[in-house]
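Format is chain and fold; as here:
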Amino acid sequence: MLAWQTAHKRVVSAVDNVGRGGLYILTPEPPVPGTFIQLLLDVPGEVRATAVVQRSEQEGMGVKIVEMEQEDRVRFFRWLKRLLS
């Protein structure tokens, strides 16, 4: 699960696909492409990041991570590595 927010709403959604540079988030009312969102991912530890919506569809949105603190990046990549092994 992932919490995300725009300037106007806060949502908890499931993640369908994860990659080094982004995520596909399942949500019935995604923001339009170009919208910046804040992400909070609960992996072992928290990962916070800023992302921009690249693709918006009826069932979800593809987002590109554009900013992440170094500590969060380490936790994110460690978690991703465990998912892929």
User: Anything to note?
Assistant: Strands lie at 2-5, 10-18, 22-26, 36-43, 45-56, 60-67. The longest strand covers residues 45-56. The CA atoms of residues 53 and 63 lie 4 Å apart. The longest helix spans residues 70-84.
